[in-house]
Amino acid sequence: MRWTGKKVGLALGGGGVRGLAHIGVLNVLEQEGIAIDLIAGTSAGALIGGAYAAGMTTREITAKVDAYLKSAEFEESAIKSIGLSFSPGPKSFFQRAQIFAKNQYYLVRALFRPSILPAEDFQALIHYLLPDIDIRDTRIPFRAVSTDLITGQKVVLAEGPLRQAVLASSSVPGAVEPTRLGEWLLADGGVTSLVPVHAARDAGADVVIAVMVDRDLPADTGIETAKDVIYRAGEITANTLEAAELQDADVIIRPAVGDLHWTDFSRSKDMIALGEDATRSALGKINDSLPLSRRFSRFTRRLLKKFD
């Protein structure tokens, strides 16, 4: 059901495989009858949010993700190889040697190309999950947030091919090749807007529910090399920018994703449940943020269910 009054927007943040928690968030919102009027997504949030906005159910999205993770494309992909190196599970000597050799190849490859991962790897996932439609044709109004590497500005995509917009939003710098679109050279939206609260506001949302699935900033970490210093500085900058944008959200949902690496699919099934748990914990705040007409409508529907 769509409403003519205040609009509720969902801002889905980036985080790689941790973004599967967004499916759990959408599951609970559906179960509770909380209608969403628009979705803004960054990176993994654009992928899941774009699929849902296009009209796919959460059950269909989950099935598509499961099918991709069992596909030949994923088995042979650099994403899986790199993810395995960050997975804490036990590995045989042969597996460790194979992973090491593959990852060294991808690192050397990146010295001569704009990314570690082949563009085909990410495109395969996006094509697996998303229909080939224009953003303007989605069932729920949708925005994909990206970053122009030339101007350094945030770019909010509201028209054009949905697949291309999500690819641009998900192009992790150094890992995935930037997407050329006109005069823009687009990379991951997380560079400028990790959780796209402002994009949801600008699209017309009066109430914004933000979902953040980035890793926790470790309080105690070894900083010994130049690489450690650079990486830590980048994490601090990202967290500071994110905190500033989240101040404009009405509700913040944070699934307990811990420090799972963005390419580690070994715990992908756990992410949906974590999204559901976090959303149920936030239901009180979500309900308080909704316009009175929606709260009354939800109360009426739940009351009728009891006597059905």
Q: How would you explain this protein's 3D organization?
A:
It is globular and about 55 Å long. The chain has 13 helices and eight strands. The longest helix is centred in the last third of the chain and has 21 residues, at 226-246. 47% of the residues lie in helices and 12% in strands. The protein has helices spanning 21-31, 44-53, 58-69, 72-75, 78-86, 93-110, 119-129, 162-169, 197-202, 226-246, 268-281, 283-289, 292-306; strands at residues 8-12, 38-42, 142-148, 154-157, 179-181, 184-188, 207-211, 251-253. The chain is of the alpha/beta class and 308 residues long. Strands 1, 2, 3, 4, 5, 6, 7 and 8 form an eight-stranded mixed sheet that branches. The model is unreliable at 97-101 (pLDDT under 50).
What distance lies between the first and last C-alpha atoms, to the nearest angstrom? 20 Å
Shape field? globular
**Helix segment tally:** 13
Rg computed from alpha carbons, rounded to a whole number of angstroms = 19 Å
Which regions have little confidence, pLDDT < 50, spanning 5+ residues?
97-101
Question: β content, as a range?
Answer: 5-15%
Order of helices and strands: EHEHHHHHHEEHEEHEHEHHH
Coarse structural class: alpha/beta
How many strands in all?
Answer: 8
Determine the fraction of residues in helical runs and give it as a percent range. 40-55%
Tell me, rounded to a whole number, the average pLDDT.
Answer: 81
What composes the largest sheet? 8 strands, mixed
